[in-house]
Amino acid sequence: MSNETVRTFDYDDLLAVDNATAIHQLINHYEHVGLQATAIGKARTLVQRMLYAREERESVFLSYTSNLISCGLRDTFTYLAQHRLVHGVISSAGGIEEDVIKCLGPTYLGRYDLDGVELRRQGVNRIGNLLVPNDNYCLFEDYFTPLLQAIHARQVETDWQECTSPSEIIYEMGKALENQERKEESLVYWCYKNNIPVFCPALTDGSMGDMIFFYNFSKKGMIIDPIKDVAKLRSLKNDVNSAIVLGAGLPKHNLLANIAMDRVVMVTTGVEADGCTSSCTFEDDRMCGLLHPHTTCVRVQGDATVVFPLLAMKE
């Protein structure tokens, strides 16, 4: 048993300093509060080391679910890629296409209780309390279809000697943003610019999948090879040793199943009762072989939109 006692905040000290200093002192004290505040405090210590005080040859992978790109956390992720604070990214299809879509049209704040049927009649999609007009997806189709045509043409020219992987498609998506006015807001763009690999093991599970299907239905012969990315991800196993996992799900499992990490911070709203690796505890991950016994892990039970800015804000 630890000899450390639970301690609360000294509000007299917090009120005696400026707001910025008070915020940092407040967050840095979380580790001594108990319950999830302690988990946030421990996670912050680890994330600070990963991003701003890492050792030589320490590399960090960012894994996130698509809703975190739809919301304002996208700006935080973009900052990390722009400043080369992460060295690899893995997400679901929505976590890629929604990033690009935001360069083409705005996402609006709405409410959770809006009438879904009425929104559909108005041509509006709802993601939680976020609203995305159908026009944004039309703009995305105009952007994505020429990219597919170019990829298909290269495959035909090489007689399909080398097929295209999802990460190669994402690289081309970043490159295709060069002429977009809002490109510097994009995570995909900065990953392309800084040669940060972006993996999406379920590329077809989204709007891109629909477009790829309909393109291949009419044109025939375009091949996307996800196995190339499995080999590419596993080739990084000696170069990547830390992971920030936000939201769990397929991106989390795909990352930890292919690379053995020394340090992992996970923020999730999932519960162990789900009985799946998306939501389980780290002890279950160790049992499944996703984590080594020596891996340093911190799991925060909470909403990443609230928690991660506290973890990533530099001391």
From TrEMBL:
Keyword terms, alphabetized: NAD
Gene3D superfamilies: Deoxyhypusine synthase
One of the record's GO molecular function terms: deoxyhypusine synthase activity
InterPro entries linked: Deoxyhypusine_synthase (IPR002773), Deoxyhypusine_synthase_sf (IPR036982), DHS-like_NAD/FAD-binding_dom (IPR029035)
Gene Ontology cellular component annotations, sorted alphabetically: cytoplasm
Family that this chain belongs to: Belongs to the deoxyhypusine synthase family.
Name of this chain's protein: Deoxyhypusine synthase, putative
Species for this entry: Angomonas deanei
